[in-house]
Structure formats: C-alpha cells, structure tokens
Amino acid sequence: MTIDDAGKAHDGWSSEALEALPPIDVAFGNADGFYSPAVREFMTGILKSPALDWFQSAAAGIENPALVMIGQKARHYTTNHTQAEAMAEWALWQALDFLRDGRGHRALQAEGKWQRTKAREIRGSRWLVVGYGSIGQAVGRRVTALGGEVTGLRRSPGPAEGAARVQSPDTLMAQLPRADVVLLCPPHTPETENMADAAFFAAMMPDALFLNLGRGALVDEGALMAALDAGRPAFAALDVTRTEPLPADSPLWRHPKIAITPHDSSETPGTVAGADETFLANLALYLGGKPMKHLVEPAAFLAG
Q1: Region 211-217: what's the mean pLDDT?
Q2: What is the dihedral angle through the alpha carbons of 188, 191, 193, 196, rounded to the nearest 10 degrees?
Q3: Which CATH number fits domain 84-260: 3.40.50.150, 3.50.50.60, 3.10.580.10, 3.40.50.720?
Q4: 297 is catalytic
Q5: Selected catalytic residue, list 263, 267, 294, 297
Q6: Residue 272 backbone class (left: φ over 0; alpha: ψ -120 to 50; beta: rest)
Q7: Which position among 244, 254, 255, 267 bears the catalytic label?
Q8: Which of 122, 234, 256, 267 has the fewest CB atoms within 10 Å, measured from its CB?
C-alpha cells in the first residue's frame, strides 16, 4: 500500500484507490513519508494499526517524538545509517573551506584583488570526532585517506575503521587542546546536553575549527558565540541548531565566524538510494525470518 501527497491510500500492486487505510504490518518511514503533505495520514495509519510488526526508518536517530511513538508501538524497529556518507562529505567540505581559507579567497575575488593567501591542508591535521559511530567512521575514513589523524571518542574504546585511536568520552577535555578540527556527532541524551559549553571551547586551540553534525542541543550556542568572539576556536560550522528551523532573527545567522546549513547535510540522491537499499535488504531478512540489521531494542523508546 502507498499513500499519495493528498493522503489517499492506493494498492501497492495495482495502484487502485482504497476507501480506507487497511491495517499496517510493515511500514517504511522514508523522506517521502515524513516530509510530504500526507505526513498526518501516514502517521495516523501507522499508529492506529492494531499490530505494527516492523517499522524501517530512513533515519539513524530515534529521539524524534514521532519516532518514539512508532518505536513504542512497533514489535521491530530498524534504523538506517547510509546517510553517514553524505554527512561525512559535509564535514570535509566545511573543513576544506576553513583550512584553504575559502572565505578569504571569496572576499578577495569580490574586490578583484590578486593576492595570495596562506592555507592549511587536511594532510597532517588532527581531528577529534566525538561520537565515533557510523558518521564518525565515514569521516574518519576520508580524513585518514587524505593524510589526517583521527581520534574518536565513544563509550566502547577499541580499534575502529578510520581512527588512529579510539578513546572513552571521559578523555574529552584532555583531547581538545591538540585537535585542529573538532566534530560532534553523538546522539542527544541527558549526558550530552550542552556538552560543548564555555569550558569545552576554552580548551580548544585558537586556530581550530568546530563542527556539529549531531544535534543542536549538544551546544551552548551563547557560549559558542562568546568563544568565537574571544578568538577560541577560530570558526564554527553547524548543520544543526537548538531551534529548528532557525529563526530569522537568530544571531547565529549573522555571526561572522559561523557557517549555517539547514540540517541538510544528508540531503543527497545517494542518501535516498541508500535508505531504499537498507529497507530492501532488511525486507529480505524479515521475509526469511532472519535477524535484521540496525535493530533498536524496545527499551530505547521507553527511555524516550
């Protein structure tokens, strides 16, 4: 069964219109489902079904209130992590623009000035990736391939792809002073709320870059702006903010040392295709009675 943008249900094989939504056993929550005009009908159909056996999400996170409700209802809930590839490219894009002084070059071009600008390289740069999961590893693979050095922080230390070393989160403050680039990509939990505070930024190097691909609530935005004004770190790029959409009058938009993107680091055709591939792979496992990939334990939603 499919639901069109008008909220009308159709048979998935014949496209014949259905008068009412039938009970739903399996649902795929892709971007079309959650961002179409029919999101209300999509959610209502899922939450009113008497026995939702499996829900496949196109997202990696589970803290969104709508996803929590689905997770509490579904017998099986699986996530998707293929968007990490696009998000890793966002991190490299921001880092390269910072290290190669993209802002300075654009300003000189606007003035018609032929003036050489000193730049830095990813080669030899030291990266600290806080939350070394699928996104962190996708970043780590790319940075390492370009000659950078990556330290990952996560709850389970040990070897991981793309990282020279993986440490426990309690080493964060000791790691910050040696990092040229600091990337946040952990989930939002009570423990990570405002983890990037005044003390966090004060521990960073003056010429370092701060990146946030996790959640806006990880960052004390007032402390970030104050730290940038004080010259430590040098610049910040944020794909997420505490309030989304970010209000037009937010000072974050106009701060000269902040680059903002509207939570769209994963918005690529490859991400859409990857989510579909994850669903189809899990569908084959589901139909075959085999354990599915990226299964979330029910207790994770009870905590939500």
Answers
A1: 97
A2: -110
A3: 3.40.50.720
A4: no
A5: 263
A6: alpha
A7: 244
A8: 256
